[in-house]
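hey can u run this one w/ magnesium ion bound, need the C-alpha cells asap thx
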Amino acid sequence: MKKLRVAVLYGGRSGEHEVSLQSAASVINHLDRDRFEIVPVAIDKQGRWHLNDVSLIQGKKSLPVFKDAPRIVLPPDSAATGALISLGGSGEAKAIDVVFPVIHGPLCEDGTIQGLLELADVPYVGCGVLASAVAMDKEVAKRLARDAGLPIVSYVSLRQEHWRKEKRQVAERVEKNLGYPVFVKPANLGSSVGVQKVKEAGDLTTALANAFQYDVKVLVEVAVDAREIELSVLENPDSGADPLVSVPGEIEPNHEFYSYEAKYLDEKGAALIIPAKLDADQIRRVQDIGRKAFLSMECEGMARVDLLLDRTSEKLFFNELNTIPGFTSISMYPKLWEASGISYTELLSRLVDLAISRHKRKKALVREFHV
Ligand SMILES: Nc1ncnc2c1ncn2[C@@H]1O[C@H](COP(=O)(O)OP(=O)(O)O)[C@@H](O)[C@H]1O
Ligand SMILES: [Mg+2]
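ok here u go:
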C-alpha cells in the first residue's frame, strides 16, 4: 500500500513555539513508519514555513528550526490540493495527503491555520475552524459550556478600552461580584502566560495591566482551592457516536498554582498522577463533563478538557478545553490514552484516519446551488 504523506507542522508564531518543538519531536518519533511518510514543516517565529529533512531531525527531543532550510508555502487554493510549493523556484511542489498541526496558542491553535487548511482543501488532524477559535477564547468557551449545563466558576470579563477608562469602577465590580482571591488571565492565551493569582484589592490593577499586555479581553475568576483534573477526549471513529473519554489524570503543582514556571522552567514544577485518585462517581462526573464539553464546542478529532475539583465542596468545574494539547511523550494527552489502552502510535494513526474521513464527509457536501 502507498504510504500516506503526513506534513507535521511545528514551531509557529506564538509564545508556545518552544513547547511545540518538543511536542512535534515526539509526534514524529511515534508516527507509524509502515503507514506514513513524514514531511516535517517548521514555522519560524516570523511565520515563515521551512521544509525540513526528516533524516536530520529523527530521534531528537526538541526539533530544530533550520533557518536555511528551503522556504515553502501552502497556497490557499483548492486547485493545488494540498501541494506545498517551494518559494524561490528551486524545488518541485510536494504533494501531501494530510496535515498534522502540532502547534500551540494563538495563530496556531485558534482556527487561523485551520482556515488556511480548509481553503487549501487538505485533510488535517484535530478540530476545525469553529471549535479551534471558540476553545482558544476562554470566555466564549465558558459560555458554551454553561449553555450545555456544565458548571463553571463565577467570572467577570473585561475589555481593555473599558478598563482603561474606568479602572476604579472595574475594581469595585470585581470586588462586589467575586471578592478575593481571584485569578486574572488573558482570554486567548495558554501555558499560563499572563495568568496571576490576586489575593487583595491593592494588587488587582497591576495584575490587570499585566494581563492586558497580552490580550484586549481579560477574565477575572473566583480562585477555587482546587485539585486540577484533566481528561483526554477522542472523536469516535463511528461518526455521530459519543466521543471516547480516557481515564482522568491529575496535575499536582509544586507552586502556588500551575504557572508557566511550574509547567516549563522548573523540572519538578508539577507531578502528573495517572490515573487521578478519584472515586467511581467522581470519575463518571469528570468523564461526563469531558464528553459534554467536547460536544458543546463542536470539537473534532481530539481535545484535552481541564477541570477544577473544589477541595472543600467537592464540586467540579469545567476550566478550559485545549484543541492541540501538549504531545511530548510525558504529556498528559497521550499518557492518559496509554493508561486507557491506546498506545501513542495507535493514537496518532487514529487521529490521521479521523482527519481523512472527516475530509471525505465534507467533500461530499453540495457546494453549489442551482434552482
Ligand atoms: N479559577 C481558578 N481557580 C483556581 N486555579 C486557577 C483558576 N484559574 C486558573 N487557575 C490556575 O492557573 C492555571 C492556568 O490557568 P488556565 O485557565 O488553565 O490557563 P492556561 O490556558 O494558560 O493553562 C491553572 O492550571 C490553575 O493552576
Ligand atoms: Mg490550563
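The chain is about 30% helix and 25% strand. anyway lmk if its weird
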